[in-house]
Amino acid sequence: MASLRDIRKRIASVKNTQKITNAMKMVAAAKLRRAEEAIKAGRPFADKMREVLMSLAARTNPGAHPMLSVKPVNKALLILVTADRGLCGAFNTSLNRRAEAFVKEMKAKGVEVELLTVGRKGNDYFRRRPVTIAEKFSNVMGSISYELAGQICNVFTDRFIAGDHQEVYILYNSFRSAVTQILTLRRLLPITPEEEGWQPRRAYLYEPSEEELLSAILPRYIQVQVFAGLLDSVASEHGARMTAMEAATSNAKEMIHKLTLKFNRLRQESITTELMEIVGGAEALKG
Amino acid sequence: MAQKFKVELVTPKGVVLDREVEEVIAPGIMGEFGVLIGHTPMLTFIKPGILSYLENDRFIKYAVGSGFCEVLKDAVNLLVVEAHAAEEIDKNEANEELVRLEREILEVSPVDHPTEYERLSDCIKVAKAKISIAS
């Protein structure tokens, strides 16, 4: 049986934890707001890029650029975007589990999957598993930028063009609202016109040639896609952390309540026992 | 007064400029080009340099990174990796940045890391453009 002092200590420690989780919640909420703004700010660029690409690419034949060419697949690359830190509920676990399922799925089809992890948690999870991690970007989620997306893109487009991988996928949590994140798996490369819904081109003057323009726009288009994925993932992470910390704070509150009840009951019991003892002692003295 | 048309300057960080102007001069890959209303629709690259637009007989300048430009009959859309308005540039900071970048680029071999080299040389061009338009 826990003594009074033990319970008092427990309460104090839970209270401390509650303070921490509450603070983390506030921080996540503030960061979430900033991340949401970044998503909004990045959207016009991505939309415009897509528009321009659509109007450009429909007429060119698939052989025009290596990024458009579909080849038989025996090796694929999965870009796994996770968080760098934990304490955000099922955010990382669901990503990792989905990635593992994907690797199995592809293996059944005879395709070997290598990973490119962005964020520490994905790397930590797969380091001890029989999956090759081709490249890792760790501790970067705190400062994502368009340049970082470019660095990631360089890694996988080089491999794709060299023929190391015939397909590139990206897996991340896309941001819907603070409480809902949607696990998103998309194919980045090769780009297939039908999927993207390309439209007939507009009557433009192209300077330089259309092929040259296309070959410059495609890598940027991919970069924008990756950048959008990163932004979404960061916002989702903060959303998930906020929700998780909110839950933790209310759990702590409930625990404190229960412990306080127990503490009071125990205190009363001990007072009663003491009183009984005093009364008993007095009775004995009377003789 | 010349007729006006819409110009939009967009970077991954957001819309930098969205207004009605009389003329735009942009640093195209095939040389600088000016756009007035009614220009033939055109699509071209932008190389790092100075973008300016004319509004009320005054040129307003921006230092821009690489990207591309879509010219329509009554609008110009520019998509670039970065853009800085002249009045927002701190000349000292830009100078320091240039010195730092020039030191960095010396350590990168253009043969071994062509993409990194290109990125840095683009940054240098942007920094130079920033310095030249900073007041």
Q: Which properties best describe this structure?
A:
heterodimer, A: 287 residues, alpha/beta, Pyruvate Kinase, Chain: A, domain 1, five-stranded mixed β-sheet, B: 135 residues, alpha+beta, ATP Synthase, domain 1, five-stranded antiparallel β-sheet, 10 strands
pLDDT average of chain A, as an integer? 87
The beta-strand count of chain B equals 10
Low-pLDDT segments of chain A: none
Instruction: Tell me the CATH architecture of the largest domain in chain B.
Output: Sandwich
Shape of chain B: globular
Q: What kind of assembly state do the chains in view correspond to?
A: heterodimer
**SSE ordering of chain A:** HEHEHEHEEHEH
Number of helices of chain B: 2
SSE class of chain B: alpha+beta
Query: Distance between termini of chain B?
Result: 28 Å
At the first level of CATH, what is the class of the largest domain in chain B? Answer: Mainly Beta
Largest interface: A-B, 26 and 24 residues
Largest sheet of chain B: 5 strands, mixed
Give the number of domains of chain A.
1
Radius of gyration of chain B: 16 Å
User: Roughly what percent helix of chain A?
Assistant: 55-70%
> How would you name the CATH homologous superfamily of the largest domain in chain B?
F0F1 ATP synthase delta/epsilon subunit, N-terminal
- Described by the principal axes of the CA atoms, the overall outline of chain A is elongated
Question: How far is it from the N-terminal to the C-terminal residue of chain A, by CA?
Answer: 36 Å
Strand/helix succession of chain B: EEEEEEEEEEHH
Rg of chain A, rounded, reads 28 Å
